[in-house]
Write a structure and sequence with these properties.
The chain is mainly alpha-helical. It has twelve helices and three strands, in the order E-H-H-H-H-H-H-H-H-H-E-E-H-H-H.
Length: 303
């Protein structure tokens, strides 16, 4: 397929696009945009830009909190298993991306088999009914929960919105890729744009989407460059893309560090270093120093 000229489309990651849309349709941004303020256009646009980025930061915080909660839902054994097999990046773990909970709980096991006992035998931890993360076409459960939380917040206000039906769909349904795309596409169509459907593959937040002007539109309408420029300014794509990309709250920047010393489940709530053991250690070191000083002092006297 031949690539189009850079002036004919915009490229943006899925996460940046969704959050840019959510910030644009938020009750705060909508109310600020409609205020009849007698301000110069440049100052008004600067205020809206600052508000848009502030809302984007709030959305990333909400997403990070959702991912933290998903990590907290995994048992210690599942966290250790995913770390050793898939690495420290939490958002890459299949149990985070697809299942949203412990696989060991899904198959009725009390505890995931300890890795140290049988490093290469994980048959007991595989559920054939769980969707493959390499072919899953829906968002991760933690992202779905994040969108549902944001949607409920938006619907709790009394401000009318032309996107109420799409927002309600993300609350009442499972909020899969279909519902998310419906909201994003309706906002893009308001600016005479769309993004072509991609081939069936795993749904990833870091996917790059290609936004283009709608081909079927009146011939007397604005040219493609003007349409894309208007969309880019309205959704703050340039600033938003850089902000999301370099934010510490981006899901890919959340790392899991396992504890250096593991303790049996019965003792996880006990103090690993009770005060008595610290005092004994200090006294032992002090006694050794005294004995060593006496020995070297006696040796010096003898010589």
């Amino acid at each position: 397929m031949e690539m189009e000229s850079p002036s004919r489309y915009l490229r943006v990651t899925r996460l940046a696009l969704i959050h840019a849309v959510l910030a644009y349709i938020s009750p705060e941004f909508t109310a600020m945009s409609c205020l009849p303020l007698a301000l110069p256009t440049e100052i008004r646009l600067r205020i809206l830009t600052h508000l848009h980025l502030t809302l984007s930061a709030s959305l990333l915080e909400s997403l990070n909190h959702s991912l933290q909660s998903a990590l907290g839902d995994l048992c210690d054994s599942c966290r250790a298993y995913n770390f050793h097999v898939y690495g420290p990046n939490v958002s890459d773990w299949p149990e985070i991306r697809v299942n949203g909970g412990c696989w060991c709980a899904k198959i009725g096991a009390q505890l995931r088999p300890e890795i140290a006992h049988d490093r290469w035998n994980f048959d007991a931890c595989v559920d054939a009914k769980i969707r493959s993360p390499m072919a899953d076409s829906d968002p991760p459960p933690y992202f779905t929960f994040h969108l549902r939380h944001v949607s409920v917040t938006y619907l709790s206000t009394t401000s009318p919105s032309p996107y109420t039906r799409e927002i309600e769909a993300m609350v009442t349904s499972r909020a899969g890729a279909k519902e998310i795309d419906a909201l994003v596409l309706k906002v893009l169509r308001h600016f005479h744009c769309y993004f072509p459907p991609s081939k069936p593959k795993a749904w990833k937040l870091e996917d790059e989407l290609c936004i283009m002007p709608i081909p079927e539109r009146p011939s007397e309408g604005p040219p493609d460059d003007e349409i894309l420029c208007t969309l880019q300014l309205a959704l703050e794509f340039n600033r938003h893309r850089d902000f999301v990309l370099h934010s510490k709250l981006h899901p890919r920047n959340m790392k899991f560090t396992p504890p250096l010393i593991s303790h049996p489940p019965d003792s996880k709530y006990l103090d690993s270093n009770p005060p008595g053991s610290n005092i004994s250690l200090i006294c032992g070191v002090a006694l050794a120093c005294v004995l060593l000083g006496i020995r070297y002092g006696s040796l010096a006297t003898w010589l």
